[in-house]
Amino acid sequence: LQNLGYQVTALIAGLGIGGIAIAFALQSILADIFAYFSISFDKPFKIGDYVMVGSDIGKVKKIGIKSTRLQTIQGDELIVSNQNLTSNNLRNFKNMSSRRVSFELGVETNTPAKKLRKIPAIIESVMKPMTLVKFEKAYIKSFGEFSIIFEIIYHVNSHRYTEYMNVHHEVALGIKEKFEKAGIKIAVK
After folding, report:
1. Per-residue pLDDT tens for 6-59?
2. Which of 78, 88, 76 minimizes the C-alpha distance to 44?
3. How many CB atoms lie within 10 A of CB 131?
4. Exposed site from 39, 72, 76, 131, fewest CB < 10 Å?
């Protein structure tokens, strides 16, 4: 081409710069494709599993070559790049056999020490008859400005989120009922 009078140096330089630009453009696409193969071979999750990516939780609906689609708890569709899934921490709730639950509950500061000592046993008595629940402990965690704060810890022997929510609802109602019978008032902020 140079013998025919064309300027080949500019053409080669242009091809080199174009090649670099194309390589940069393809970099993320190729990373997603390699991540797809990693997901396909390693199988950290499959369609139907509930996973947590960052702060988002959803059910895996489709695993594509470039991205994976999740249906979030709120019902919307979340599209996550495969590279993001393989380069960050991911929680798969499908393989969870039990869920550890920890929550705080405040009682009024004027609650007598005699009643405070009974609170762990009261809370345990709420959970004892529940088949999916294993009580771990309840103790005074701290003294707040307007309350004495207990931390309550138990395990739900199920991986299903709806069962956890139902159990936690029953635990909370049971504690409220038993506290009312014992004359213990829950502190309100």
Report:
1. 666 665 656 566 666 666 666 777 778 888 888 888 888 889 888 888 888 889
2. 88
3. 6
4. 131
Cα atoms in the Cβ-side hemisphere of radius 13 Å centred on 51: 26
CA dist., res. 89 & res. 105, Å (int) = 31
Q: Which residue has the tokens 């300027």?
A: 7
Encode 65-93: b = buried (16+ Cβ within 10 Å), e = exposed.
Answer: eebbbbeeeeeeebebbbbbbbeeebeeb
Cα–Cα distance measured from residue 88 to residue 115, given in angstroms and rounded to the nearest whole number: 47
Q: How far apart are the C-alpha atoms of 139 and 104, rounded to whole Å? A: 10
**Phi, psi at residue 102, to the nearest 5°?**
-135, 125
Could you give the angle at the alpha carbon of 151 between the alpha carbons of 56 and 134, nearest 5°? 80
Give bridge partners of residue 149 from the DSSP assignment.
106, 142
* DSSP line for 66-135: SEEEEEETTS-EEEEEHHHHHHS-EEEGGG-S-EEEEEEEEEETT--HHHHHHHHHHHHHHHTT-TTEEE
Which tens digits make up the pLDDT trace of 51-96? 888 888 889 999 988 889 999 888 899 998 888 888 888 888 777 7
pLDDT in tens, 150-170: 999 999 998 788 889 999 999
